Amino acid sequence: MAGALTDVLGEVLVAADGEEVAVSALAARGVSLVGLYFGCSLGGPCAQLGASLAAFYGRFRGEAAAAGGQRLEIVFVSAEQEQQQWQEAVRAMPWLALPFADKHRKLKLWNKYRVSNIPSLIFIDAATGKVVCRNGLLVIRDDPEGLEFPWGPKPFSEVVAGPLLRNNGQTLDSSALEGSHVGVYFSAHWCPPCRSLTRVLVESYRKIKEAGQKFEILFVSADRSEDSFKQYFSEMPWVAVPYADEARRSRLNRLYGIQGIPTLIVLDSKGDVITRQGRVEVLNDIECREFPWHPKPVLELTDSNAVQLNEGPCLVLFVDSEDDGESEAAKQLVQPIAEKIIAKYKAKEEEAPLLFFVAGEDDMTDSLRDYTNLPEAAPLLTILDMSARAKYVMDVEEITPEIVEAFVSDFLADKLKPEPI
User: What's the pLDDT tens digit per position in 208-226?
Assistant: First the structure.
């Protein structure tokens, strides 16, 4: 256990009293699950979660002490910029914290687990370091007594099991989804981007069905009332989890670690995830020629997928798109390196630590260059880490596969010196 956890958390953590605790010591305590709590000491949602989590943690500690062990530990990964605020936050917490000075590891954790907002709670297996549950906030709400510990992922067919609705009031069993590709659509009427996507998605759904593909969409509502749900669902030609079945809607949110809407998760006929970026795929492929949208190792940067630049470090190769073949040649150059990295981390059941893009010359690319203060050179090889507000730049006259591979390897080995964005 110690090896996997030290790879993730480092050698030591800090307790509320300031004492250092060796990560390796967690094994002796019987810890089998670690919750990474990304948050801050300020009020609002973090304060609310902190209180709920403290009560939840206290129950576990009490039960564990009675049973002679400790199954769960929480580690605070702070968003604080000032050490005094961090110290005050840690003193008020009954669990452990990542040392304030270990800022580099903190950023790596935010990137590794694709944390885009706080508070966020992610459970990882203490023996392997692998993610068990991406949305621990819902665990605290749905299972306050910890009866479902350790909250590991279940098959889609098990989580979705039960009656589904059509907008005419008819019901059907979830087993009707078997053998089809399924888009699990997390959305709400109060959300303007959701309504915009729904209009596009209705047309995409129609085109895919007319092409003879076995495809269904399952609406998982985040509406604030049943009336809003009914109004919104009346526009949809697919099926939905009944609004009253809040437990099943929440379990689906937990299963896919939903942190924002709209989100479209596309599953294959066995219920395995093809892509979590269904929204981007639908908007980029209006004619649905690439359905079911298996992920591409290298993407051409567009207005609709630029949001992914905020999800973690991204390699972006800027080219001069006035030459029609330049972007395609750049993608072919980067693709073998991207495929190699993706395959390596997939074998470890982990997400790749980099996304890969090629960017041409357009208004959106110009805005990105301006925002990150990049030179106008083309080709220009960069790695952009928006959450760390850092960039790494390789400005050479010719980009070769060897240069790209060495650049990526040096980044992953922490050998590159970042420049501020």
Answer: 999 999 999 999 999 999 9
